[in-house]
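User: Sequence recovery, please. Input:
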C-alpha cells in the first residue's frame, strides 16, 4: 500500500498560507488578558417561562410603598400562581396596578401576573 492509497478519502490541507499577524505588543501584558468571564444572560437567569413572561417599565413613583421606583423594570410571569403577600400585577377597570396579594380581599380585581423580579434603575 503506497502513500496515495493510504490517504485516500482525506481532505488535503491547503498549501497557501492564510496566517494573520499578531499585533505588536507594547509594554507589559495585563494580568487579566488570559481571564475571560462568561456573559450573564438575564433572560436565562431571571425568566423561567419565556412564553408567559413580560417586562414592564414603571413610569412614576406610585408604587414607592413596595420599593418600586420610576424607571424600574418589573418581570411578570402570568403562569405562576401567587403566594399570600406576594406582589402581583392586577387590572382594575382596565388599568394595570401593583398590589400585594390578599386572598381575603372583597375588592373586584383581575390577576394579570405575578411579579417575579424587580430590576432597579440607578440612573
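Assistant: Recovered sequence (123 residues):
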Amino acid at each position: 500500500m503506497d502513500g496515495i492509497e493510504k490517504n485516500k478519502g482525506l481532505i488535503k490541507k491547503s498549501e497557501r498560507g492564510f496566517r494573520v499577524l499578531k499585533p505588536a505588543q507594547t509594554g507589559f501584558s495585563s494580568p487579566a488578558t488570559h481571564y475571560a468571564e462568561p456573559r450573564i444572560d438575564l433572560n436565562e437567569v431571571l425568566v423561567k417561562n419565556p412564553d408567559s413572561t413580560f417586562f414592564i417599565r414603571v413610569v412614576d413613583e406610585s408604587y414607592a410603598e413596595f420599593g418600586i421606583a420610576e424607571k424600574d423594570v418589573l418581570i411578570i410571569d402570568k403562569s405562576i400562581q401567587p403566594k399570600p403577600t406576594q406582589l402581583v400585577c392586577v387590572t382594575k377597570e382596565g388599568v394595570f396596578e401593583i398590589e400585594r396579594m390578599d386572598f381575603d380581599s372583597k375588592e373586584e380585581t383581575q390577576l394579570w401576573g405575578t411579579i417575579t423580579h424587580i430590576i432597579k434603575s440607578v440612573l
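The beta strands are 53-57, 73-77, 87-92, 95-100, 110-119.
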